[in-house]
Amino acid sequence: MPVVNDAVQTWLNSHVERGFSPAALVDAMVGAGFESELAQATVNASFDAADAARAALVAAPCGFEVAAGEYRYDPAPVAAGNVIRAYDRDVKVLMRCERPQIVAFADVMSDEECDEMIERSRPLLKRSTTVNPENGSNDVIANRTSEGAWYHRGADPFLDRLEKRFASLMNWPVDNGEGLQVLRYGVGAEYRAHFDYFPPSQTGSGVHMARGGQRVATLVLYLNDVAAGGETFFPDAGVSVAPKRGGAIYFRYMNGARQLDPLSLHGGAPVLEGEKWIMTKWVREGVFA
C-alpha cells in the first residue's frame, strides 16, 4: 500500500495550486492505490494548508489598508480619468479598484471588431491548456474547460491596430505583449480560480519567464454578451465583473519592486446560458520574443 511521502505531497501541492478540485485529486490517489480515507484526509489537509498560506499573504481588499510587509500597491500604469484615448479609440472607464488593481472598461472594441475576432477564431479552436508547474509544458487540465485560438503579435494590419490600442490603454509597450488568445466557453465551461503570473517557486515557470520575464498584467476583452454566468471573479477581493460585449477588464499583479499580488487570484465563472467569447492579452516586464 503506497504512503504519503515527500514526493506525493509535492505532487499534491502543485496540483492544488493549479486549481484541481478535491474530488479529482482524491480519485487520482485512489486510482494510484491509496486507501480512500487516507486520500481524502491528505487532500483535505493540503487544501487547508493552501488556504492558510494564502490568507497569511493576502493584502486587504478594495478600500482597506495594507499591513506592513505585504504586497505594496504602487501607481498603476493605466491613465487617470473617466475616458482614456487608447491609440485610435476613446475608451470609457466604468470602475477602478485599488486593491487589487482592477479597471473595468466599456467600448474598447466595436461590435464589428468583436464579430471579426469570433469568426476568425471559430475554425481555429482547440482545447485550452495551462502551464505545467514542473516542466513548463502546456497541458490540458480539468479546471479549464474552454477552447482557444492563438495569434502572433501584429500578424496583420487588423491585429496590429488592436495590439496598439490595447498597449496604449494599458500604458505598456507593444513589444512586451504576448500574442492575443481568443477563448470560447460553452454552457458549463469555466476556468477555476488561478493566477496569471508564473509562480517563481515552480520549476516550469523558468521556461516561460525566459521569454520576456514575468507577466505583470492582464487585459480580458469581452467579445459577446453572455445570457447568464461567465463573470470574471476575484474571490479574495469580493469583486466580480459581468461580461459585456466590447468591454474589458484590466488587472495588474506585479509592482515596481517585482512583488506578486496574491489578491489577483481570479477565475471565469461557469457559463449558465449561451456561450462566452473572450480575448486575453498578457503583458511581460520585458520584451516578449
- Largest sheet, order of strands side by side? 1-2-3-14-10-17-8-7-4
What share of residues is helical?
Answer: 25-40%
Radius of gyration: 19 Å
Mean pLDDT: 86
Compute the separation of the termini in Å. Answer: 48 Å
Could you name the ranges where pLDDT drops below 50 across 5 or more consecutive residues? 53-61, 63-68, 135-141
Which terms summarize this structure?
globular; nine-stranded antiparallel beta sheet; alpha+beta; 6 helices; 26% strand; 289 residues; four-stranded antiparallel beta sheet; Jelly Rolls; 2 domains
Could you describe the 3D structure shown?
There is one protein chain. The protein has 289 residues and is an alpha+beta fold. It has two domains: 6-57; 83-284, Jelly Rolls, CATH 2.60.120. The chain contains six helices and 17 strands. The protein has a nine-stranded antiparallel sheet. A four-stranded antiparallel sheet has the order 9-15-12-13, with no helix packed on it. Helix 2 (22-31) runs antiparallel to helix 3 (36-57). The chain is globular.
Write the layout of secondary structure elements.
Layout: H1 6-17, H2 22-31, H3 36-57, E1 83-86, E2 89-97, E3 101-106, H4 111-121, E4 126-127, E5 130-131, E6 138-139, E7 147-150, H5 157-170, E8 181-185, E9 191-194, H6 205-209, E10 215-222, E11 228-229, E12 232-234, E13 239-241, E14 248-252, E15 266-268, E16 271-273, E17 276-284
Antiparallel strand pairs: 1-2, 2-3, 3-14, 4-7, 5-6, 7-8, 8-17, 9-15, 10-14, 10-17, 11-16, 12-13, 12-15
